[in-house]
Amino acid sequence: MNTVDLTANTNAPLRGASAFIPAGRFVLRPVRKSDSGLFAMYAGDRRVAEATRSIPHPLPPGAAEAFVTRAMATDADEDIWVMDGSASGLAEVLGVISLKRMDETKRDRGQSEIGFWVGPAFWNAGFASDAVRALVDANPQGNRTIFAEVFQDNPGSARVLTNAGFVYLGDAETFSVARNARVPTWTYIRKLD
């Protein structure tokens, strides 16, 4: 089992997904190539895929490796962290959380969208709540506003957001690849300035 040194980067400036962010029982850390097997296992679970917009089900061969490559790219518009509990005796990969920049090509408005998923074996343990709070508090992209969207049939994720200070903005809908359908959503906002 690999361990993460929680003290190694405590004085390093927080910059995107290269930052290690303490989150209580675990740390948010950059994605590593070795994560692809666990990503494939968790994201390959229908329950995880159907709670996201972009994860297909069944997960095609090579999809986890492609996700790792995208997550490790230095020029990406999305910063992705792994929820890693190995230093506390928990699993090395509990889930994933990300911040995707919005409107950067037009002008920098300091806006991102947060997204997250947790492996089913770790549901209802507060990991998503801890990760969202830690990422918002660290604010590694220097955002003024963070948006979020959850499917209306996933009230647990809505509670994660409201418990982290997000405010309901309105109803919408989006396409889910795993469901091959448009799904009603709730949209949330968190102002940081």
TrEMBL record:
Taxonomy, superkingdom: Bacteria
PROSITE patterns: GNAT
GO MF annotation, one: acyltransferase activity, transferring groups other than amino-acyl groups
Annotated InterPro entries: Acyl_CoA_acyltransferase, GNAT_dom
Record-linked Pfam families: Acetyltransf_3
Keyword Ribosomal protein among UniProt keywords: no
UniProt key word Transferase: yes
Keywords of the record: Transferase
Domain (N-acetyltransferase): residue spans on this chain: 46-193
The protein's name: GNAT family N-acetyltransferase
Originating species: Paragemmobacter straminiformis
